[in-house]
Amino acid sequence: METFYVSPQEITLTTLTITGDEFSHLTHVMRMKVGDAIRAVDGAGNAYDAVIAELKLRSAHCTIRAHHRLLHEPPRAITLGAGILKNPSRFDFLVEKVVELGVSRIAPLRTERTIGRQAKVERWQKLCLAAMKQSGRCVLPHVDELQTLDAFLSAPEARALKLIAHEHATQPIAAVVGGGWEHALVCVGPEGGFSDEEIARAVRAGFHVVSLGPRRLRSETAAIISVGLALHVDAT
């Protein structure tokens, strides 16, 4: 079924209403009609199987047939802190792919070696919405405003598993990640990676310095691998 985003305010126990850009996509792109089945997600963890009951000039009114909670959502929450990149399209790619994997929040970071200076938060939030729908998720990840690495390191998630990737690390993620946690902070650097002083500050803040393998990875590749491993690898 085609997936559409519906604001929680447009959903009742038995009906939902599709408006705005989603309505335009439904009518002008997908050319759907009364009686067609759709899936709607509210970005807050709810997915609905519904049938189009009525099409108006600017809205589609649908009857809910089934409700799913946390459909296709991972059991662990990942917050990704990632240094913004000089090439904006590469960070766009990073955002899209980590959302598909299951990240919960993205924190764009300014670090010592950050080259890029523009944080296109509104664009990245739109990419999150598109990737959420494409991947069949029902939780819309949040993109923070640009912040410093120190602000990210001092975040109050004291009980979260904290990982920072570094090319000179020797400890693999599998040696740190176990089954007893529900939230992780994962941090990757920009072009050039993190400085030794930044890594030292991360360690003082409770982060485990982890390796992603023997090869030097692009920042977006490091982000994708880090999130995937943190979500799915348990310690052996």
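the 2nd protein, sequnce then structure:
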Amino acid sequence: MRDPYEVLGVAKTTAQADIKKAYRKLAKELHPDKNAGNAKIAERFKEVSAAYTIVGDEAQRARFDKGEIDANGAERAQGFGGYRPGPNGPWGGARRGPGGPFEDAGGTEDIFSDLFGGFRRGRAGGAGGGFRPARGEDRKYALKVGFLDAARGTKRRITLPDGKSLDVNIPAGIQSGQQIRLKGQGDAGPQAAGDAMIEVDVEPHPFFSRDGNDVRVELPISLREAVLGGRIVAPTIDGMVNVSVPKGASSGATLRLKGKGIKGRGEAPAGDLYVKLKVMLPATPDAALDALAATWPEDDSLRAGFTVE
């Protein structure tokens, strides 16, 4: 292991903040994700990282400058067997020499939190330092999805801010606020990249609405269809189907189409489609209808329950 100051390209008198800046610059230039397949740069990155564990922390740096530890972070021999005297004599308070646990005083934690989203402490048996940087930061994105695409499931191609394009599978039945995780598509890290977290925003539909896994729609029917009943065409999330309107149907009557709602997850059954009928009169006056309606008897019983005392 070379002198850590030399590895980082700084002088022994360099301020602690400037050592950190030098390391940040090198870490970004040498990061393995930016130099895939380059073994020489990968080794250089490890060397720079190990050097920073020594002089990037004030306490470790002070011990190195005093000659208490070497460039690998290992204890220098102090007396017998690589031990140094403790406060209670030659053997009291002894601490392990080379080959023992590396005590990371936290010098790398701050920098890796900044660059790569934190790190996990580790143990090292000698050269190479003792830190184990964690994965990179997760990145969060928002994606608008149409109601039918969310209900049926689809695939969308998205372009990340760095210009990279990805195909994203939108699972059937996804709802607003739910997230899709794309593993390894976040910020780069020394050991693994973070994930891309895509939060879905489902856009409203002109006539469909969702109620759990059920779907609801209000469907206009003519006065003739309401009086005489018959077969009409109704929309579902998967296309048009024929449904039967019972004779004498009133506005508000609801037809249930089993299994025509949102597909259930796993073994759960699909939801249902509820078609609420809405009787509509002709948009323009119809003399024949007016004449026919005039022959109908008045019926106040429809409003019998609406009396206010």
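The chain has a mean pLDDT of 79. Residues 101 and 123 are 6 Å apart (CA to CA).
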